Hints:
The complex is a heterodimer of chains A (479) and B (453). Chain A contains nine helices and 23 strands. By secondary structure, chain A is an alpha+beta fold.
Amino acid sequence: xxxxxxxxxxxxxxxxxxxxxxxxxxxxxxxxxxxxxxxxxxxxxxxxxxxxxxxxxxxxxxxxxxxxxxxxxxxxxxxxxxxxxxxxxxxxxxxxxxxxxxxxxxxxxxxxxxxxxxxxxxxxxxxxxxxxxxxxxxxxxxxxxxxxxxxxxxxxxxxxxxxxxxxxxxxxxxxxxxxxxxxxxxxxxxxxxxxxxxxxxxxxxxxxxxxxxxxxxxxxxxxxxxxxxxxxxxxxxxxxxxxxxxxxxxxxxxxxxxxxxxxxxxxxxxxxxxxxxxxxxxxxxxxxxxxxxxxxxxxxxxxxxxxxxxxxxxxxxxxxxxxxxxxxxxxxxxxxxxxxxxxxxxxxxxxxxxxxxxxxxxxxxxxxxxxxxxxxxxxxxxxxxxxxxxxxxxxxxxxxxxxxxxxxxxxxxxxxxxxxxxxxxxxxxxxxxxxxxxxxxxxxxxxxxxxxxxxxxxxxxxxxxxxxxxxxxxxxxxx
Amino acid sequence: xxxxxxxxxxxxxxxxxxxxxxxxxxxxxxxxxxxxxxxxxxxxxxxxxxxxxxxxxxxxxxxxxxxxxxxxxxxxxxxxxxxxxxxxxxxxxxxxxxxxxxxxxxxxxxxxxxxxxxxxxxxxxxxxxxxxxxxxxxxxxxxxxxxxxxxxxxxxxxxxxxxxxxxxxxxxxxxxxxxxxxxxxxxxxxxxxxxxxxxxxxxxxxxxxxxxxxxxxxxxxxxxxxxxxxxxxxxxxxxxxxxxxxxxxxxxxxxxxxxxxxxxxxxxxxxxxxxxxxxxxxxxxxxxxxxxxxxxxxxxxxxxxxxxxxxxxxxxxxxxxxxxxxxxxxxxxxxxxxxxxxxxxxxxxxxxxxxxxxxxxxxxxxxxxxxxxxxxxxxxxxxxxxxxxxxxxxxxxxxxxxxxxxxxxxxxxxxxxxxxxxxxxxxxxxxxxxxxxxxxxxxxxxxxxxxxx
Lengths: 479, 453
């Protein structure tokens, strides 16, 4: 497959490209879903092809095809050149790439147990048992369990001489209990919502999740929510669990620090950012307890790789240090705007798409204390757990997020259970009100395998290390 | 001139490829779904083209049934041998799962509506054609304003063949040009054209509309959150309709008591002026005349004169309901069940100007952004206004306001509709396909927060 990428690069250069890179790719996916001990879906898919990116006259062109004979590869490379020439129809500054040392390398996710070779019977049996255990809870309507496996093999070549082979493997699983009664529906998920806990790992990760062991508790919690009162509307202290902190980091820090958004390149679709290129080192993003790092070398993270899709080696980058914003996520095209070289965040949703700036593993650095200790240290407030809904404006300022369940905190203890909790805030005010960040004991590397961005829409697989957090003066119970 | 990549397979080649899967031995049933998509996209920002791309890909998705046990596999190897290998993979999976007690069987042979939605000029649209249209949009920008957006031209070849003898195949095309024009002092304006052919794309109009809105929305004032009368332009209406499909019109959620319409069949749940239906055969919509199971798409009246009438079904939920499939099946496996992809809202007799003139105090909303569900059974959603939000006072547009966050029940909003636009537009939604909907005037619409721009 590396030869396919090299053929595409050579053809693009022959057609007039000043620069070209190509990614030949093969994706494999397997997904299983059980609901009430019935198989909802079991499928496998594969996708193979090549994408060619070129610069002609300082303009990008890109073309991709699933047809991999030499004639089609060469035709696709010429098409990419034609795309770039058409882009010259409008005036503009030529694209300038920051330098990178061309690598000849290979990299792969550390996998102890290949998830694609684990027998289907074993996977189905695990899901059936988790579903059966949840169904044992009286009053539960739906007991769902799912597994997802993903492997992306990429062969990258560039006209600078890079030749990189990379294999990324992800495994994930989760359970979901749904209780429906009297016009109400309540849901609990474990270990996290939206298909559970996905990591860069093999099937050994699935064996650590405890899907069967936690099934009864999750089922009971869903049923209990039906009888719980609505989360009251008030301004109070808010404690978030690690899973909701993942979402909070993703939406209100991860996206606004993408330099392509800051430069307006996503303006018309998902929006831009409240940050400006000159904000590095000057803007207070959060309280001084908050430090955020983008680390593409983090073991287990969905944003972990050897090289990004421009051939730039993975890096660990400080984003927010003691509350001060320090660095954007950048690509070879954008990094020069802020006087830097790429910090390796340009990734595509497979061979058929153009790389965009994507989060790697954007994580909050652990603070001190467990979740129990943070709650114990809170006199009055609300504790929310497990994301259920998210919405944020086009500059990533005004957000409103929902969770599956909440509890009243009174004198350091959880008292009343609430359903349908949500909260709203303004990004820098909210992060500025953070007065506790949990320690390493409750710090979890979560995966977000469904991050949407770009046109045509691309799905990114990104990671977040997150521990619980506490925020003051937050509006909860929005209606 | 650049040419698009990817030649159409055509029905004969699809049949030859599908036969590779349909020849699978030992199965009770085999279904082959072909989705072949190709086209180009020109994306622009800061009034420059920054992405110019051409893509082509195929998915061959095979569903195999053995004694009610179902396995699905997919690949993009579009050959008889590739189809056969994919079928074997699906068969392997079907061996290890329990039978589906609600398995309805594969779609029987039937004739799909004869809709002609393939425009060769759109399938072949060159990057130069798109770039010229983009130049037209950018050329409408006032001094100090710039445009961002995308012009997409796409062709899709959809085919379904199964061992019951059903065979359907249809190509279609889509073209969409959208832009956000922004400028100093917070001005921002949006416009879009979404159609089956590039001939319907009026770049000058898109650019002018977005620019005029951007200029008019500069220097917005902050308005307190609260409940306001709103005039929603079609793009904003499309958000309400798209999310109502998600929380209400899907047959599976309804059968399971998870729909916001649970217990409301035959009840007046919206203003009498509101009628919504789904009709994949209507020439004013896009796509094929059959669903992803090979069932012809039926017209389904969902809300008629404000009364909730029905939901949509695929074959499995249809069996559960004791009803035939309405032709709303999605690619298998599909735990979410059927979904309406061709929604229409009936028009009224008002213009947006008339809605504004009849409003003492309210808001004119161009579109919503990043909407999501708050409480599905209450049809409650939240999202932001974007790209042109204006205060209406004494029947006139008084000036721009900063974006507001709404948290609102969709059914509550539809019950409060007082005027319906006389023109319907095909409008896309951030998460969903396009709906053909008019502008609405809604008496009470709740805004729960305010942003800084």
